[in-house]
Amino acid sequence: MFSLYDPCTLVQAFALSRQGSSHQRATPAKPCQDACGVFSGAYRGEGAMAVVAADGHGNAAHDRSDIGAQLAVQTAGELFLDFALRAVDAPPAGLAPMFRDHFPRQVVKRWREKVEGHAREAAARTAGDLAGVASTPPEAGDSLWRRYGTTLLFVGFYRQYVFVVQLGDGAVVVQHADGRLDSPMPVDPTQFGAARSRSRHRTRVNTSVRRSFPWRSSPECCWSPTA
Amino acid sequence: MEVIAGVLLVTDGVTDAYEKTEKMHQMLRQILDNRRTFGLGPSTDVLPDFLDRASKFGSGDDITVAGLVIHAVAVPVVVEEEVEKVVEKVVVEVAEKVVAVEEEKIEEEKTTELVSSPSRSMNVPYIPHRKRIHESTLTTLPNSPKIPS
User: Fold this and answer.
1) Three-state DSSP class for A212?
2) Burial class (CB within 10 angstroms; exposed 0-12, middle 13-18, buried 19+) of A153
3) Interface residue of A6, A11, A18 to substitute, partner B, most B CBs within 10 Å
4) Residue A75: closest CA among A179, A154, A191, A169
5) CA of B67 to nearest chain A CA: how many angstroms apart?
6) What would you measure as the largest C-alpha separation in chain A, in angstroms?
7) Lowest mean pLDDT among A202-206, B5-9, B47-51
8) What is the mean pLDDT of residues A118-136?
9) DSSP letter at A150?
């Protein structure tokens, strides 16, 4: 369980994954293939916070999806803090395009690199040659990414904007100022790593993102205890 | 651009556990309201049990709930009538018990005071009413979204 409260932005972040009851009952017990994390940073007094959740695919073809999910969470969190650092001087109107044009693509690219690194290390460990990790040839792209396949759900808060990214299933639920909840993301079965559901037959890794867009949060979010 | 008060991320372990989106939203609303009302600690304590039950009686799949709550945006907290009645009843019961315990201790102190030194009357223990009420209510009613202040 991750919980964090930033008194400057008045934003509270939390994330919790629990192993499913069917995973506990399975013989042998399956690991929790969901992963989640909370990340935060501050740049010139502007707090940045990111919450990430990922759901590893979980069948035999995706035997390392629990690790894929953890890598996806780590990658998205780190990259959002990088984005916040680069965007510290960007005009407000430029934040959304900057995020939309670079962030999802960067996440997929970095995730693949991490997956290849993990696979190399695992191969070297199996061969008992950890010193030769760098020289161990990686497995082929598509089939390797499929083994680590996962979804990704991301929400980031920075400079009064909320950024959302979704790859694959699950849901992003938004609470409006009047208390109403809705799920504004359009339905799209594409996945991160490799596809399941409608696009199960595809072997090409899909890098598209359902949608990423900013919402303006309350202007009072600028409030700080020293003001 | 729209003003929003929070965003929740849920994996398919949650979405598959509910036949109707409205029911899922109702559950998520409770989580958000709990976090707004009780803050990090108490709402964090009850969330694992909340999710375990959703997995057990729902999809059986792994389950993740994550999100951001923006406290600068005031949101009306929805309390269902029945839940509110139960919460009120529990709060009154707990408050009565706390008062009874307090009175008992004061009586005890008075008796001790008569027997021993008079300076002991300054040592009446402080009982944090609100804390005890909140903790007790959360333990018995993890889904209750609001405690009257």
Assistant:
1) coil
2) buried
3) A18
4) A154
5) 6
6) 59
7) A202-206
8) 74
9) B
* Any A CB within 8 A of B20 CB: no
Q: How far, in Å, CA of B146 to CA of B143, rounded?
A: 9
Closest residue, chain B, to A30 (C-alpha): B62
Q: For chain A, list the strands marked E by DSSP.
A: 2-6, 11-18, 34-43, 46-55, 152-158, 161-167, 171-176, 181-182, 213-216
Torsion, Cα of A114, A120, A123, A129 (10° steps) = -130
Q: Report CA-CA distances (Å) from A151 to A30, A71, A77, A163, A189.
A: 18, 11, 15, 17, 10
| B28 touching chain A per CB within 8 A | yes
Enter the ipTM: 0.81
Q: Within 13 Å and on the Cβ side, how many CA atoms surround A176?
A: 8
Among candidates B9, B39, B63 on the partner chain, residue whose Cβ is nearest the Cβ of A20: B63
| pLDDT computed for residue B9 by the predictor | 94
CB within 8 Å: A162 and B7: yes
Lowest-confidence segment of A109-113, A222-226, B16-20, B131-135 by average pLDDT: A222-226
Neighbours of A26 (CB within 10 A): 11
Relative to beta strand A171-176, strand A161-167 is unpaired
Other Cβ atoms closer than 10 A to A199: 15
Residue B11's pLDDT is what? Answer: 92
Shortest distance, CA A59 to any CA of chain B (angstroms): 12
